[in-house]
Specification:
It is a single chain. The protein is α+β, with helices and mostly antiparallel strands. It folds into 2 domains: 2-101, no CATH class; 107-228, Lambda Exonuclease, Chain A. Helix content is 50%, strand content 17%. Helix 6 links the parallel strand 3 (132-139) and strand 4. The longest helix has 29 residues, at 62-90. The radius of gyration is 19 Å and the shape is globular.
Length: 233
């Protein structure tokens, strides 16, 4: 769980840094040149993520930190590949390239609250083309072989409801991005999904919580204090 939180934080830091990184890329840059621009920010991105989650650093294992560093390195390669392909396809550079690759209107870790629906939450990422908006939830754990996990689908449903209230537009679809396999899987936001979100909301408001079991995962979970009244978390 702590590793997952750190991986989320590194992605958030990179999303916020990428526009500045790509503005340095010129038309004559090779893939190696582009990759170097991304890699130059690797340590700063990781350090920024660690500072952002400073309360969890004391329970972060060395192998988790090594994994996070390697994961970020792979992600930087992925970003550099996309930037090079866009450069080759559209012959853009600097400001124009930066806007295309990392549009400044992309919402990252966007908090929303809908008082009438009694819902609130944070979208990992919100992207849009014209008037079409869609949420992207980032999942760093092992993905299912097909489709998406039920809890991930419910998360998309909740965020979609918040977005419909916030942007005043319908949100018919969202995506779950499983980072271990670099794959986005679609989730249709239909009435049945929305009803399930409201059903769970009602259970929470009525304090009808499911039975919980203290497991090894709880030791490194950032929500341990919520479930178990842990004063140390």
């Amino acid at each position: 769980m702590v590793l997952g939180v750190l991986l989320h934080a590194t992605r958030e830091m990179l999303e916020r840094e990428e526009y500045t990184i790509v503005k340095k890329v010129r038309k004559d840059f090779s893939f190696g040149d582009i990759l170097e621009e991304y890699k130059n920010r690797r340590d700063a991105i990781l350090e920024g993520a660690l500072k952002k989650k400073a309360s969890l650093v004391h329970i972060l294992l060395k192998e988790d930190l090594d994994f996070a560093r390697e994961d970020l390195t792979l992600l930087l390669h992925e970003k550099a590949i996309k930037t090079k392909r866009v450069l080759q396809c559209y012959n853009l550079e600097k400001d124009d390239l930066a806007v295309y690759v990392s549009p400044p209107w992309k919402y990252v870790r966007h908090e929303m609250k809908a008082k009438k629906m009694k819902l609130q939450g944070t979208a990992d990422c919100i992207e849009h083309f014209g008037s079409f908006f869609y949420p992207v939830e980032i999942k760093t754990g092992k993905p299912p072989k097909e489709n998406v996990f039920t809890q991930d689908k419910l998360e998309i449903g909740c965020v979609a409801l918040l977005m419909e209230d916030y942007f005043r537009v319908p949100i018919p679809v969202g995506f779950v991005e499983y980072t271990q396999i670099w794959e986005r899987r679609p989730v249709r936001v239909d009435e049945n999904l929305k009803k399930n979100v409201f059903r769970i909301r009602d259970s929470i408001l009525e304090r009808k919580y499911p039975e919980k079991e203290y497991t090894q995962k709880c030791l490194s979970c950032e929500y341990r204090g919520v479930c178990w009244d842990d004063p140390n978390n």
